[in-house]
Design brief:
This protein is mainly beta. The chain has 2 helices and 12 strands; from the N terminus they run αββββββββββαββ. β9 and β10 (151-153) form a beta hairpin. The chain binds 2-acetamido-2-deoxy-beta-D-glucopyranose (2 copies). One 2-acetamido-2-deoxy-beta-D-glucopyranose binds next to loops.
């Protein structure tokens, strides 16, 4: 039986050689509910895994991701309460659909730390990053098995989160996230805001990092992550890996 099973796996996996193995590990001391979203306007190839699941502390899952996965993201949801049908809500990161996110519009509610990928085809590199552009809810790290750069926000930014940015709060009153200055509504006119890079601040030149309040709190703690819309200028926001290397990636919560 064991031999037969091994043979079967080899036969079914071989034609799918142009795929990567992704591993999602919850190294937190608490349960996280990971979620996957693939922007349907960019690509139709999706990971071979449900778009949402429960990850107990110290658990891991691995799955195949097609080589042409484009504009995909994985994040963790905190303090969720789902019923037996998978209906329910989370304090942050929650998506339309409940436990299993809607493939069309199941983007997470902010604040949420995001791991983002566009895998390379036709000689283009893989692009990947950790983004806290939409706020922070969990420390995360993207590793790979080919020696390409680590992307991470490994520090828990919640305990020292500046008070105007703290929240949302769980039922015990503990902060479960640290919002961006934009999301926290510090600028009353969000349509024309230096913190949000909108209106007269909507280009890299008119929305420099120096104009984003609390930028240094996020970037100093998480230098290898994207911390505001035009953070590519930092040189340490967006990472690439030669797609010819066919890297496998590991995403760890609470690395
Ligand atoms: C809960 O889940 C069931 C089964 O998927 C569904 O039919 C129902 O509409 C859901 N209820 C709510 C309130 O979303
Ligand atoms: C898991 O977390 C512990 C601290 O709780 C840390 O020492 C360890 O390096 C982490 N493991 C991984 C794989 O990130």
């Amino acid at each position: 039986m064991q031999l037969f099973h091994t043979g079967l796996v080899a036969l079914t996996v071989a034609p799918l050689a142009l795929a990567r193995t992704f591993t999602v590990t919850n190294n937190c001391s608490y349960t996280v509910w990971p979620a996957i979203f693939t922007d349907p306007n960019v690509g139709t190839a999706v990971p071979d895994h449900p778009t949402g699941w429960e990850a107990p502390p110290r658990s891991s899952v691995s799955f195949m991701v097609p080589d042409n996965w484009a504009s995909g993201r994985i994040w963790g949801r905190r303090d969720c309460d789902f019923d037996a049908n998978g209906n329910g809500t989370c304090v942050d990161g929650g998506c339309n659909g409940g436990l299993v996110c809607d493939p069309h519009n199941g983007i997470g509610a902010t604040p949420a730390s995001l791991a983002e990928w566009t895998l390379g085809t036709n000689g283009n590199p893989d692009y990947y990053d950790v983004s806290i552009v939409d706020g922070f809810n969990l420390p995360i790290r993207i590793d790979n098995d080919k020696g390409c750069h680590v992307a991470d926000c490994p520090v828990d930014l919640i305990p020292d989160c500046p008070s105007p940015l703290q929240g949302p709060f769980d039922s015990a009153g503990n902060a479960a996230g640290c919002k961006t200055a934009c999301a926290a509504g510090i600028d009353h006119n969000q349509a024309d805001s230096a913190n949000c890079c909108t209106g007269s601040h909507s280009t890299p030149d008119t929305c420099p990092a120096s104009g984003v309040q609390y930028y240094n709190y996020f970037k100093d703690n998480c230098p290898n992550s994207y911390v505001y819309a035009y953070d590519e200028g930092s040189g340490t926001a967006l990472w690439t890996c030669d797609s010819g290397l066919q890297a496998d990636y590991t995403l760890t919560f609470c690395p």
